[in-house]
Amino acid sequence: MIDFTGTSAQQANNFNAPTAVCMAAVLYVFRSLVDDDIPLNAGCLKPIEVIIPPGSMLNPHPPASVVAGNVETSTCITNALLGALGVSAASQCTMNNFTFGNDRYQYYETISGGSGAGGLFDETGGLVGGFAGTGVVQTHMTNSRLTDPEVLEFRFPVRLESYALRPDSGGAGRWPGGPGGVRRIRFLEPMTASILSNGRQHGAFGMAGGAPGQPGINRVVRVDGTVETLAHIGQAQMAAGDVFEVHTPGGGGFGSR
């Protein structure tokens, strides 16, 4: 049984998740744990009873806003289930939804981060090994790909300054969490840029003695060198020469050193 009783009530913001999104996360987690070649269909959930209280943020009443439920809340559900099962530490709990545009251009991307480290177990549940997290990778519900740099710069008046590993952002442990990344985009003409993200206050949790990963950071570096830090949801008016930086979260570590 998967019982979401105790989940927060539906929110006034848009982080509510429709029940279908919650069920998709449950299906994903348990299908990924089946060590056999079985089809992915509704039959996977037959052995599992799922309780999702009406009026909660995972089963909201209309007309609740749900736009962030699929991209953000679903990743939190997945991490929570894998953690409750003792399988792995948390991966970044966000898709880092980044958008920019003006009257002529509009663009949207999700940005990868660190995955959580985990354990390998035998039939009795005994720990027989583990695996480190992977750096700058799309995890769990974040199954999208980035636009090639050449295409991005050809189609939009921006320059991809850098996209690199974020050192020491993965949680320490016997098997460390994967590091997040730092993505820097310089604007060549005025635009509005926005970020919708999670994991900016609390890092991805570690497991079995592993440390949590570093939280993410959103900030704008103005052409004059001034730095403005944005919240997990933020918007900025970008002038020509300004840089938008997204430091994505690292994954949690697994096991004591």
TrEMBL record:
Domain spans labelled Hydantoinase B/oxoprolinase = 2-256
InterPro entries (alphabetical): Hydantoinase_B, Oxoprolinase-like
> Which Pfam families does the record match to this protein?
Hydantoinase_B
The molecule here is called: N-methylhydantoinase B/oxoprolinase/acetone carboxylase alpha subunit
Q: Which organism is it from?
A: Paracidovorax wautersii
Q: What is the lineage of its organism?
A: Bacteria, Pseudomonadati, Pseudomonadota, Betaproteobacteria, Burkholderiales
